[in-house]
């Protein structure tokens, strides 16, 4: 109810029962000027509708309030050369293995943090992800280069339960993973902002550019629908290579 509390505070001098769609639109316009995201605006609208329609029992009180359209942003990716440079600029072997798995296996940050030692299947060259998004298990690729570094890492760092653990044991910090990727990308002088999810996007895009079937990429990423995976066709370089530029 935090969103509704902000709405109430904005109209502190008015009786809530007297507010109409004009008041709400004016409030939403104020939020837009503050550069609030569409997701934020939708949560504001939901909180207002919940109060009037559920708490006060006034159905469809504000049914004419227009919701912002869902944003469709293209995924941020970096080139394979930039990925390799980022890996080369990590601080130590542990950090290197983290980046190699994020990219080479297309992992979400949470999936990387949840990995156990036994989830690395070196015989089949696969990584098992348990209870991923949607509470589904899946398998994804294991890089040969990553495996070589993981073996050296395991001998040196000796993790007990999770593949990557904090200094005092237990699960590794999510913020630490973000910092590892960010710091390495700055050292590599990559011009765009790079996050763990950028590496996952890059993994998918580079596979598509290499001719891997979209359905196979969907399985590796754990997407429920091919429509989610199709976004990578909008950034894959080979999508545009067959199109002759009119200037040329």
From TrEMBL:
SUPFAM superfamilies: DNA breaking-rejoining enzymes (SSF56349). Keywords: Chromosome partition, DNA integration, DNA recombination, DNA-binding. GO terms for biological process: chromosome segregation; DNA integration; DNA recombination. Residues 1-56 form the Core-binding (CB) domain. PANTHER family: PHAGE INTEGRASE-RELATED, TYROSINE RECOMBINASE XERC. Residues 73-245 form the Tyr recombinase domain. The keyword DNA-binding applies. InterPro entries: CB, DNA_brk_join_enz, Integrase-like_cat_sf, Integrase_catalytic, Integrase_recombinase_N, Integrase_SAM-like_N, Tyrosine_recombinase_XerCD. This is Site-specific recombinase XerD. GO terms for molecular function: DNA binding. Signal peptide: none annotated. Coiled coil: none annotated. It holds the Pfam family Phage_integrase. It comes from Leeuwenhoekiella aestuarii. Gene3D superfamilies: 1.10.150.130, Intergrase catalytic core (1.10.443.10).
